[in-house]
Amino acid sequence: MRLFLKLTTLFVIIAVGVLLYISISYNNFVNSSPDGRNEPRMVNIQHGSSAVAVLAKLEREGVITSSRMFYYFGRINGKLGEIKYGEYEFTTSMKPHEVLNKLITGDVKKYKVTIPEGYNIYQVADTVSYVLTGINKDDFIRRAKSKEFAKSLGLDAPMLEGYLFPDTYYFTKDTHLDAIITKMVNNHKRFFSERQTERAKALGMTLHEVITLASIIEKETSKVDEMPIISAVFHNRLAKGMRLQTDPTVIYGIEDFNGNLTRKDLETTTPYNTYRIKGLPPTPIANPGLQAIKAAMFPAEVPYLYFVSKNNGTHFFSTDFKEHRNAVNKYQIRREKAED
Q1: pLDDT in tens, 111-162
Q2: Which CATH number, 3.30.1490.480, 3.90.180.10, 3.40.50.970, 3.30.70.20, labels domain 33-108?
């Protein structure tokens, strides 16, 4: 009988010791991280992966110290079956509850894509495909040039040039191409209402023509305070039946432009050569920002018909051709001779 009591007591002591060890180990696991170096760890969790496989991958990548402990931790919290799939960015200083919370909320890695004002669809495609390596540049361009796709997005335009709104976006690695483009277009559309449509009508223009003009303004200057004045020049020329004669449109119409605009280029007729055609080109030549769009809709009340770059980021404006020629001679021809 005494032996039985001794054995029972020993068993209880061992059991308590084991439970105490497990409890301490579990608490240490729950309240600690792999290390304090805060090193990033990218983990891609494939759709259909089991919880066991996911936890094993997390342990291999150094996100957690024990897949077994994490399994028990997830079961106790009743969240193990709620893991979302995708690409995650963890750090080695994250505690188990932070890792689990990221997994069950689907807080996947999002990539920052910044589209500057004045980028055309080719530059946008370059930027998106560079950041999101799963997106093919040519596929992006082909989709952006699709009239049918533009129509499906509610746009009365031959393609999406001008409607991919410049902004900073955040996309997951597996975001579909159409979803990326749609988000950019919807971002553009949120600035337009019946009021803007009525304003365009008051100018004798369609919204597409306003965006086309805005894209030219965007390419002519980065100075917000000059945009309404440059807009006025173009509105004044259009009202008088004068050609716009703006270099950025010519350049847009040249395939594989090498950076050197020649006299031959200016004399070659294309749908975008505003030295040869009257009125606006058939589409925008870039994706304008909000300031350029506002300038297109609300030009300054000035009589200017010409402008020339002063080579310092600003322009000299003229009301007649003689004054303009003098300005060209002062700011362009003399400068070119001085450089020679």
Answers
A1: 999 999 999 999 999 999 999 999 999 999 999 999 999 999 999 999 999 9
A2: 3.30.1490.480
